[in-house]
């Protein structure tokens, strides 16, 4: 059975898309463990202690309820730095920035695709307005 890392105060997390999901400290542990393994700075035992530190900060800093995922990731960065895992902290920060850029780029692609589809299927009011202008000009 996977180890549990409960928070005393935070019961839910708000994801970037706005959905609310149950708090799962094991996800924090997995992210910290993968970061440490990627840099070779630490193993599962240290990841365990770092996760407990993150949850302690969450419980001491925030009121009961839910917390945004970005705030949790900020705390992970702080814990990595204060625990002298600078190489892992740097890699974690770069990873977050790369994924932020990927999300932004993906949103741009979706917006462009949506605009093209609106135009092609005449769902966009500007297509109808231009069509009406051409009819008025011809008449």
Mind explaining what this structure looks like?
- By secondary structure, the protein is mainly alpha-helical.
- Helix content is 69%, strand content 9%.
- It contains 5 helices and 3 strands.
- It has helices at residues 25-39, 44-61, 69-82, 86-120, 125-138; strands spanning 10-14, 20-22, 65-68.
- It has a 3-stranded mixed β-sheet.
- The chain starts with 9 loop residues before the first strand and ends with a helix.
- Count the DSSP helices: 5
Question: What can be said about the biggest beta sheet?
Answer: 3 strands, mixed
Helical content class: 55-70%
Distance from N terminus to C terminus (CA atoms, Å) equals 76 Å
**Spans of at least 5 consecutive residues with low confidence:** none
Pattern of helices and strands: EEHHEHHH
> Any idea what the radius of gyration is?
23 Å
Kindly report the spatial arrangement of strands forming the biggest sheet.
Answer: 2-1-3
What would the principal axes of the Cα set say about the shape?
Answer: globular
Category from helices, strands and their pairing: mainly alpha
Overall pLDDT: 84
Strand content: 5-15%
Count every beta strand, where a strand is a DSSP E run of 2 or more residues.
3
